[in-house]
Amino acid sequence: MRKVHIYLIDTRKLTFNEIVSLCSLNEEDVSSLSKYKVLDVKKEKAVSLYFRKKYIGEVSITEYGKPISSHIFFNISHSKGVVVLATCLDCDIGVDVEIIRESHDDLARYISNDYEYSQIKTEIDFYSVWTSKESIVKCLGTGLKNDIKSIPSLPFDGVKEYKGVTYFSKIKRIGDVIISTTIRGNEDFDIELTLEGISHE
Length: 201
Fold this sequence. Notes:
Layout (H helix, E strand, L loop, with lengths): L1 E9 L5 H7 L4 H6 L6 H18 L3 E2 L5 E2 L4 E7 L2 E7 L4 E7 L5 H7 L2 H6 L3 H18 L17 E5 L2 E10 L2 E8 L4 E7 L6
């Protein structure tokens, strides 16, 4: 079975200096982050930089703006201070992370087709739909060019078809964090999760 690695750092209780120390960023790295004026964004970008340096190496950018590597498939996502990196050795991958918080019915209607909307009963359901759709788009790597309602979210764990391509998705929840991971193809995969430098209550 294919293996997907997911690395997660939660910056919400960390200062920027603590992140710099945790991620062993050098002066050049810190200087490159000075352009980000919003502290939370700066912290997330610091973690993204660390992930790329430690696990990915050099990247290039596709015409659609997706960073790619010559030796590993990867995708990075962040939400409200939580940053995740997903990697796979042999197939395209997309990942989306969200903090579970209050959701709004108008947004649920906007992103969901009629059946998906009928299945949304809780905030967890809403963010499962949302992240599932986002992870497919990020796996595809072209950005959101179609009506978001047309992107399948169900089943959360299993095979989906989108634009003539088959995908396999899985949802993972850790506390108030929900992560959706999608790979190209119809094969199931194992997730190996690494929580870096954080503790969970």
